[in-house]
Fold:
Amino acid sequence: QVRLVESGGGLVQPGGSLRLSCRASGYSFSVYSMAWYRQAPGKQRELVARITSGRNTNYADSVKGRFTISRDNAENTVFLRMNSLKPEDTAVYYCQSDIGAWGQGTQVTVSS
Structure:
């Protein structure tokens, strides 16, 4: 059974940092691209960052230079390091695998 489980969300002040983790199980993690999406209240889900099996990355313009996606194939885990967080980064963040699976989401709230 394919499963993605996110962790690491929470409440942080503007300018702060968080690291999200997504642990995968049930398939060959290393051969699939992984991505982080987010959905803010009243808005559509949007791609935040993506990493291929070859570790090529791409980012939404709104997070370039602040967020870093990485993966640890030995631990079947993808990470999203978020620095210089802004209130507009507040959203539910979802992990996604190109095998067609989604995590349950983790809430990130940026507020003073």
In short: The first strand starts at residue 3 and ends at 7.
